[in-house]
UniProtKB/TrEMBL annotation:
This is DUF1275 domain protein. Residues 1-38, 286-324 are annotated as: Disordered. Residues 1-24 have a biased composition (Basic and acidic residues). PANTHER family: DUF1275 DOMAIN-CONTAINING PROTEIN. The chain crosses the membrane at residues 49-69, 107-129, 141-163, 175-194, 238-257, 263-281.
Length: 324
């Protein structure tokens, strides 16, 4: 009898009762899993996919700088040249007795270009590298590229309908000059901040001096092969030079034969193609597997080295202790 009573008590405990429902987690209280779409936008884009993305952007940089230099004597992306122009013109204007010939550049437009570039570069650069976003996540790259394309679209549309004057007419219209430069430099600021934060050092998208020197001091510069890890950076830099120079030639020719509006629309179309490309680009493990996982690890170590060289050195020491 005692055994039967004990068995009945255990059975009654195992059977669910109406009061047990309050202790069962409801569908609403259970932690929801991120859907595949959300995970996809949070993943990092692969290094190899980013290279093609940045090369296409570099082509567009050459297009825009060729047009802005021809029209105003300034650059939308190359702020080294703008900084020099701004300082030299400031000194020349302060020294009215100077015998130097005046530049074709408008000082206000140069200042607007530099200020717009720095402002949007600061904003998007700091957001991109924050721990809440991540500079190489698909979602952030889509948003950044979309903003760049939006600035280019607005500039293209306003020039096309005649709201903003370009070429010879623009030199006599200060408002058109400043607005055009503001839009193009803002797009360039977002672009360069994105390019530098993803840590593909061979493709800065808007400057050539540093890649030139990196190529000249590359030990594998004269290596007679195109495959191999030791020549990979050299090959990427040479490709960057080719894309940038090709964009400049196409931009100068398109402006000369068809006008600046055509150059702007081509730039917008290319940036829109970049946007679509980022939508479908593979994540860092989607296509190349272990190869991209290794590249991802190397990029993380490089990023960490910039913030804490000591940790990077200790990590390198641990890898050496573990052996190959």
């Amino acid at each position: 009898m005692a055994e039967e009573d004990s068995r009945r008590a255990n059975d009654s405990q195992d059977k669910p009762t109406d009061n047990d429902d309050q202790y069962r987690p409801s569908e609403q209280t259970r932690p929801a899993r991120h859907p595949a779409t959300v995970r996809r936008y949070k993943e990092n884009i692969s290094v190899s996919a980013l290279r093609l993305h940045l090369l296409l952007i570099s082509f567009g940089t050459g297009l825009l700088d060729a047009a802005t230099y021809s029209d105003l004597g300034i650059f939308a992306s190359n702020q080294t040249g703008n900084t020099i122009i701004l300082l030299v013109e400031a000194i020349n204007r302060a020294n009215r007795s100077s015998n130097t010939s005046p530049s074709n550049a408008d000082v206000l437009s140069v200042g607007i270009s530099l200020a717009s570039f720095l402002s949007f570069g600061l904003l998007f650069g700091q957001i991109g590298v924050s721990r809440f976003v991540g500079p190489r996540t698909r979602g952030w790259l889509i948003f950044s590229t979309f903003v760049q394309a939006a600035f280019l679209f607005i500039a293209s549309l306003l020039v096309q309908v005649g709201v903003l004057k370009v070429g010879a007419d623009q030199r006599d219209n200060q408002t058109s000059a400043t607005l055009t430069v503001f839009l193009l430099a803002a797009s360039a600021g977002v672009q360069v901040a994105m390019a530098k934060s993803v840590n593909v050092k061979e493709i800065p998208t808007a400057m050539l001096t540093s890649p030139y020197v990196d190529t000249l001091i590359d030990k594998s510069l004269f290596a007679f092969r195109i495959r191999g890890k030791d020549v990979a950076s050299r090959n990427v830099r040479l490709g960057y030079f080719a894309f940038f120079a090709s964009g400049t030639v196409v931009g100068a020719a398109a402006r000369a034969y068809s006008g600046t509006a055509t150059v702007l629309w081509i730039s917008f179309a290319l940036r829109s193609a970049n946007l679509f490309y980022i939508l479908v680009a593979p994540g860092h493990t989607e296509r190349h597997g272990k190869k991209d996982e290794k590249e991802e690890g190397e990029h993380r170590l490089e990023e960490k080295a910039t913030t804490d060289p000591g940790d990077s050195g200790r990590a390198k020491g641990r890898r050496n202790d573990q052996g190959p």
